[in-house]
Design goal:
eight-stranded mixed beta sheet, 15 helices, Rossmann fold, Alpha-Beta Plaits, single chain, alpha/beta
Length: about 450
């Protein structure tokens, strides 16, 4: 069966290949890393799986940037962050005329994209279904189910050496879906699928972008109906990962399916579970006044001393120029100005990497053009809309973090650092700090560019 491939264009100019299958009453957007529109319909099972999803939905499938039919020549620093992939999903929905949809996130990366979309754009999300999801990849003292970092890096190096070979594909078949290991065609099909979606360098970038991703802070902010689906015997992403995700999303269901395969196109029980979930959803159940956002605060260092040392006209001219530079940066990085008080700015962003890059750009530009220094703080969390402005504890946290920053310093919360894996940004430990009026201590990081 031939399905028409169309292209959506993201806000940063990347062309994303997508297809629409079926005409059901609910839009279902499938988020899968390493999907491959050119190959997925050739698979003996994957095509039938997609048709099954399309039997109860208007199914929208696409290749993320850097994969398959979509653009591969893009800024490496923005290639595979979940923020940029969320932009891919939004662009495809816009092009497909989809105002609201159920997001189906498959495997850890696709699940992370679906959850970031749902928390950032709840008004466009009917619900979220996840398959083989996880909150992070690597082991941590407070996440003992993660993988050892050295073992992960060794596996990535091996993938780069043997990407697309039948030898590696056979090993993956045996590990990922043991019941198919004796099928003589399975390894050849998988090897061809690998080559169709990208080369060895692409595979390394995909893996590294997942390596340091941590979405644990996203989970409590999910406000739409969610189901986490996982197979009991999944060896690649153990069922404990899925249980953790479901337990930390308010009101989420956990659907445990039998079987030892990691692959999403095995059996009808997975799409049947998604269909039951979709059939129970009501499209009007969403809290539009609460959403995930990244907040940025900036102000001029030692502004009182600078103002005192200048005459009124010179100070006003400097502040006007400062405001012009800040607003120019906000426009470039798609920030929304929330408030301006004296020489300070409060802005929100729907992506943490853009907020950090904006703060770094402002820091450099005011130093170069005005010979002054600013401080900045960035945090990602749930905000509320009050009188058209963002409010809530996340806003307070962002302001407190900014107050800790020194001259020409951009400090960010751990949440921000964990969400921008693969962005090309670098972070240095700045210690655990107490934030005025907020209980406990908070780990903060100094932002830079690799």
């Amino acid at each position: 069966m031939v399905h028409e491939t169309r292209y959506a264009v993201t806000r940063d100019g990347v062309h994303i290949a997508y297809q629409i299958v079926g005409d059901g009453p609910v839009d279902l957007v499938l988020c899968v890393s390493g999907f491959g529109l050119g190959q997925v319909w050739q698979g003996r099972r994957s095509g039938a799986f997609l048709e099954r999803l399309a039997s109860f939905s208007r199914l929208i499938i696409f290749d993320f940037r850097g994969t398959g039919y979509s653009d591969h020549v893009v800024d490496p620093g923005q290639l595979l962050t979940i923020e940029s992939r969320m932009e891919d999903a939004r662009a495809v929905m816009d092009a497909a005329g989809s105002e609201r949809a159920v997001l189906l996130g498959v495997e850890p990366t696709g699940s992370a994209v679906a959850l970031l979309f749902a928390t950032t754009l709840p008004e466009r999300t009917v619900g979220v279904a996840l398959y083989a999801s996880s909150a992070r990849e690597l082991w941590a003292p407070d996440y003992p189910i993660g993988q050892n970092a050295a073992e992960f890096d060794a596996e990535v190096a091996d993938v780069e050496r043997r990407w697309g070979t039948t030898e590696l594909a056979q090993e993956w078949v045996t590990y990922l879906f043991p019941s198919r290991a004796s099928d003589p065609h399975e390894a050849d099909d998988l090897a061809e699928s690998m080559r169709s979606i990208g080369g060895p360098g692409d595979a390394v970038i995909w893996a590294k972008s997942q390596r340091d991703l941590d979405i644990r802070d996203l989970l409590p902010n999910v406000r739409v109906p969610t189901v986490a689906i996982h197979r009991t015997g999944d060896r690649a992403t153990s069922v404990e990962h899925g249980r953790y995700v479901a337990e930390h999303i308010p009101g989420a269901e956990f659907a445990e399916l039998p079987g030892d395969t990691h692959m999403w196109d095995a059996g009808d029980d997975f799409p049947a579970t998604v269909e039951r979930f979709v059939s129970r959803l009501r499209q009007d159940e969403v809290e539009l006044d609460r959403y995930l956002a990244t907040v940025m605060f900036t102000d001029i260092v030692d502004s009182t001393a600078t103002a005192t040392a200048s005459d009124d006209r010179a100070w006003r001219a400097l502040v006007e120029r400062h405001h012009h530079l800040v607003r120019g940066a906000l426009a470039r990085y798609r920030g929304t100005e929330m408030d301006t008080a004296g020489d300070g700015f409060f802005a929100t962003f729907d992506g943490p990497a853009r907020a950090v890059r904006c703060a770094l750009a402002i820091t450099q530009e005011v130093a170069d053009d005005l010979s002054i220094e600013i401080r900045a703080g960035v945090h990602t969390g749930e905000v509320q809309t009050l009188d058209g402005k963002a409010a809530g504890i996340a806003v307070t946290l962002g302001a407190r973090i900014a107050a800790l920053a020194g001259p020409s310093e951009v400090l960010v919360s751990q949440t921000v650092r964990d969400l921008v894996a693969g962005s090309g940004l670098s972070f240095a430990e700045a210690g655990e700090r107490e934030l005025k009026g907020i209980p406990g201590t908070w780990r903060v990081y100094r932002a830079g560019v690799d």
